[in-house]
């Protein structure tokens, strides 16, 4: 589990109380706290000017300032950082006035303990994030930039352009769920966003990650629209998310959270409305809980409300590994296109979860030598090739790659810069940027993750002749087999694995061929070509349906 670190500015002149706060925070394993203590208002303002503070614990009575004036001056100096006021019992009126005027919370010094302190900090940061940054997301910015570029080049009708720039529908919930063995109820923010309702039901994964926000989910839902349209699937794009770190939850907590999520969003989802699937931090088990909760609500079994569920519940053969398998198919096609022999080609894979692990497996099966892989915990390198099966066994036992003896540890930031033929970022967004793209050393960049490359980096990679296989094409194997799962579910049929794989290969290679043709005909990079291909379909559907009323 990655260690989240929170920097607290403790503004307090009483040494006994300062020591108590530091002691309470030092006992937390997750998140970890760094406490910076100052004893005066001037000291606090000076430290805030340097940035990097996540939350301020503020005593209102200081040697150089007293009462609400202390709060007002800190607030005026820094409008964004959440402030928790600390007060004695006899100052409670003052503290609640500070809250009325924008402090996130107050803590009573006489009653403070580790649990109240941690909860107060956690919620202060969460609320500030929810208030200020829901739409402000670098991912949404990237998704919109990519869209606007393709819309401009393809001459998309301006009315449709404005319509597609933001999602049609979004719902936010503050979700409560019970923690194990505690009386505590945790409240987290949860989202479901539907970008385009024109093409049929909406479709998109559900992500559990501590950075999830409305903007991020909106970006992911936009990419789903383009992906489904590029693959010619009868879906619009959607996405869901919960701002939570699933690695900190027990299985029971994960189940309670998932069931509550389903019930909060039950009016939005359904086999004919919106069909969730796994994404980062969720898996087939999470889909099974969603299906069960939904079925309990309507009174009969509805397997087609989700895809990516276990096979025994109506999941499709091949869905679990489909995204990685699809990536390897497309890399094979791209190798043929540029005359690169897959057999012996070197490959680097960032991320060793569902997409990365299967991508590495199928690339290796096709003859590629996997010389680097990483997850959150570590990056491993072996110029002679890493034994992927042994790495998978290790992760099955230990959850992460950390401690795995089969490769040399390298700094994570160096992994993407390893010299190789095929680079597959399969973890997070925003990994290849203007800052590192000049050091990317591959011939084919195959995007398993959503949004790993910024627009500036795209231009730089294109100028260097690196073929970028864009996310909406390269990781579409998952949604293609999800579509097959949905179709099988609606018809109560089961297709054999060979049929599923060959149908998926057909859909992906057709989409690649169309993208290559557009790229060459319109002299644009592969991402823009794939987007234009997708936009032409969504634009035509919008025009044909017309606008109600
Ligand atoms: P996942 O199963 O949760 O795996 C994510 C992997 O990325 C884990 O190995 C994680 O490491 C690793 N990771 C996270 N942050 C990292 C970092 N900073 N550096 C290196 N590794 C890091 O998620 P997934 O389903 O594979 O999804 C990965 C990406 O593919 C996402 O962008 C997702 O939207 C996209 N995608 C997924 C699917 C699908 O079918 N699942 C389909 C299309 C697109 P730890 O395990 O150590 O946390």
Automatic annotation (TrEMBL):
- Name the source's superkingdom: Bacteria
One Pfam family assigned to this protein is: Response_reg
UniProt keyword Repressor present: no
4-aspartylphosphate, modified sites: 59
Q: Which UniProt keywords apply?
A: Oxidoreductase, Phosphoprotein
Concerning its family, UniProt says: Belongs to the Glu/Leu/Phe/Val dehydrogenases family.
Its recorded name reads Glutamate dehydrogenase
Q: What organism does the UniProt record list as the source? A: Sphingobium chungbukense
